[in-house]
Amino acid sequence: MLLQFVTRLATATQKPLVIALLALSLAAPLLLASPDQNHHHENAEDTCFICDPAKREKGRLWCREHSRYEDRCWLCHPELEDKDRLYCNEHGLYEDECALCHPALASPDQNHHHKNAEDTCFICDPAKREKNRLWCREHGRYEDRCWLCHPELEDKDRPYCNEHGLYEDECTFCHPELKGKNAALGVDKQNSTERGLFCNEHQVYEEECGICHPELVDELKPGESMKLRFASTESAQKAGIKTAFPKHEDSFSVVEAYCEIGYNQNRLALVTPLTEGIVRRVLVDVGTEVEEGDVLIELHSSAISQAKADYLSAIADHKLKQLIYQRMKKLAGMKVSAEQEFEIAQAEFEMSSFAVERARQHLFNHGFNADEVAAIEKDHDSSSILRIRAPFSGTLVDRNAVVGESVEASHTLFRIADLSDMWIELSIPADRSQQVKTGAQVDVSFDDFPQLSVSGRITWVATSIDERSRTLRARAVADVPQGTLKAGMFGNARIMDSWSNKGISIPRNSLQYVNGKPFLFVKVEDDLYDLRRVDVGNKSDSQMEIVNGVSSADQVVTQGSFIALSEFLKSHLGAGCCEPGKGTDK
Known about the structure:
Layout: H1 2-13, H2 16-32, H3 35-38, E1 62-63, E2 68-69, E3 87-88, E4 93-94, H4 108-111, E5 135-136, E6 141-142, E7 160-161, E8 166-167, E9 198-199, E10 204-205, E11 225-229, H5 233-238, E12 242-244, E13 251-263, E14 268-271, E15 277-282, E16 289-290, E17 295-300, H6 302-333, H7 339-365, H8 370-379, E18 385-389, E19 394-399, E20 406-407, E21 414-417, E22 421-429, E23 441-445, E24 453-465, E25 471-479, E26 490-499, E27 504-507, E28 512-514, E29 517-525, E30 528-533, E31 535-539, E32 543-548, E33 556-559, H9 561-569
Antiparallel strand pairs: 1-2, 3-4, 5-6, 7-8, 9-10, 11-30, 12-33, 13-22, 13-26, 14-21, 15-17, 15-20, 16-19, 17-18, 19-21, 22-25, 23-24, 23-26, 24-25, 27-32, 28-29, 29-30, 31-32
Helix pairs in contact: 1-2, 6-7
């Protein structure tokens, strides 16, 4: 009334600025006064939610500047004010919800207490409430005993216990003698329907009202749902919600992973000498392409000289023993020599054959091939030169040898790699590990080389998740022109594998998670949606397979599902479900 008077005065006097200042000076004490500046308690030991933060609703934001709940602070949020409802300036609440001014509105859990602080009851301990009986979180009582939410259920002929939210004839707190009798706390038959209580505000049954009872969402099984009603059809439209009918179709599972290019370990050789020696000559350098059998390096080794000499000596001794054996065999046939002498000659000949084979094998063990051993025998070569050759065709990718260097048998002189095919080492996220199988195609791109892309097939998948990185290792082979890829390059891999769809495909951003469980929003009416629990299958970057929970006849929310989820999550913040002015008045 004061503001209306000031407005009329400003119009009549045509001095709006002066009148505005006057209005501000008059209204400021009313507008800016915080509840904690006005309220008091007759008993100094009493406290309330204004002066004691412990008594405020959990999850409900508090405006510290103006000492009231954020959703009741018109100074911070003028757009939230319902001007048709009377407002209690002293306590910062609507009059119809101010339990300090109107004790009848108080929730049981605001008034009740236990002599023993360790004692609990169904009001303060949810575990002691009746199973399958809905609880009004806003007013702290059973839904079927909440006359603020369900005035149609009230039996005015039965005395009501405001302290405990029960009829007097069923309140065992006030009347302990009722314990064990049939004055049960159950729902009255005359107040129940086949599907239970009806939420007048959201026009759905209480047991499926996601706004009033969001706690029930954790109990849903795939295919079951809670309902979410927007304030109006316009609200749903402004939220940008769009729906579509899902379809059964074959899809491609695409898994993204990081990868590193490496040499094909099956075509990589470490060239090492099989005996110690000194480098005499190096015939190749890094980058040289070699063929199988090409000489890479020459070593000087006394062990080689000794091995060659032993081989030549064994051959000479074998030839001598062979002549003696042949002579004794001839004499034995003529009965000229003793049988014993022939047998000794035969044994020595066979032993000399073994000695030749042993000396030849010794040369093989030092790295000589059959042609080189034959040449040693032919040329009577007893030099100390050891020539080391390439085991297969490839490219010299590393060198660790210089002339004059003394090397041991375990010393790596060169690394040779076949660059015609390279390995793609993949690191796959653990949650996508079930979608990766051998034979799947892999496409790799490189951020540093946008014009370069390669493909390959997975040849190996690890059987365990790496404990440190929590990724699954896999390998693909890329058959590319030699020199295209370099070992150590990092890239982005896309692993593609087709699957025969067991369910339906939806856009991946349609899926939302509540407490780690997957849900979809399905349109029921223009302002009413199902929050439906589903089972998911394969997934790609853009699509998700749903194997249970929705059908092709359901209108699934494909855009705006996050906004719909935010609307549902508001119910966790302590906002009331029975505020007049929204839906049907209560």
